[in-house]
Design goal:
Helices cover 36% and strands 24% of the residues. The protein is built from six helices and five strands, in the order H-H-H-E-H-H-E-E-E-E-H. The chain has a five-stranded mixed beta sheet with strand order 1-5-4-3-2. Strand 4 and strand 5 form a beta hairpin.
Length: 200
């Protein structure tokens, strides 16, 4: 590669500075500063799969605001949020789920996050089963395992089953979940029992 006279001088100066910097540690990695607050991850949900990723992050980070942003706001979309519980959820908390809304969803997740510790494990593992996408709607089906360590005496820290998310796209191109259906497919409790248990 050709370097002009001025460029050569600049290159030599840069090399000299680099050598000097190497001696004084100017460009060496420094120890990271202690964080002032926990890291939060939430991306603009311009795609249905981003909603699912945001939901998983919100659960892992125990972030109530981010969790709620994944769910339909009746003021911003066509549909209101609807949760359809599993059969065991209906059997144990039928009257509660008949009037379930985003207010109950927020209360349950808030209560759950207060019955744990920052170091406790909370994660949502999903295995996609089916995916149906349209211009302004989507239907996603997953087998799930929810792990959420909690301090409720005798209550499990894991739920698993199958779920379906119906999503809508708002006029501002933001996707949210407007219908969430839970199915019992394993010997574990379903997510519905977490919602019922921590609803108040």
């Amino acid at each position: 590669m050709k370097v002009s006279g001025g460029g050569a001088a600049l290159l030599l100066l840069s090399a000299g500075l680099a050598g000097y910097a190497g001696g004084c540690g100017l460009f060496e990695p420094r120890s990271p500063e202690a964080p002032t607050q926990s890291s939060q991850t939430f991306l603009p949900a311009t795609d249905p799969l981003i909603v699912i990723s945001n939901l998983q992050d919100a659960i892992e980070q125990k972030s109530v605001p981010n969790y709620m942003q994944c769910l339909a706001d009746p003021l911003a979309g066509v549909h209101i949020f609807l949760f359809v519980p599993s059969s065991e959820g209906t059997a144990q908390y039928g009257s509660l789920f008949r009037t379930w809304s985003t207010a109950e969803e927020q209360a349950y997740f808030q209560n759950l996050t207060t019955r744990t510790t920052p170091a406790s494990i909370s994660k949502l593992d999903l295995t996609e089963k089916t995916r149906s996408l349209a211009a302004d709607s989507a239907l996603l089906e997953y087998d799930y395992t929810l792990t959420f360590e909690n301090t409720a005496a005798g209550f499990p820290s894991r739920a698993s089953g199958n779920l379906q998310f119906a999503l809508q796209r708002s006029s501002s191109n933001i996707w949210t979940i407007y219908r969430w259906t839970d199915f019992k497919t394993t010997n574990d409790i379903t997510w519905s029992l977490f919602k019922g248990k921590f609803s108040n």
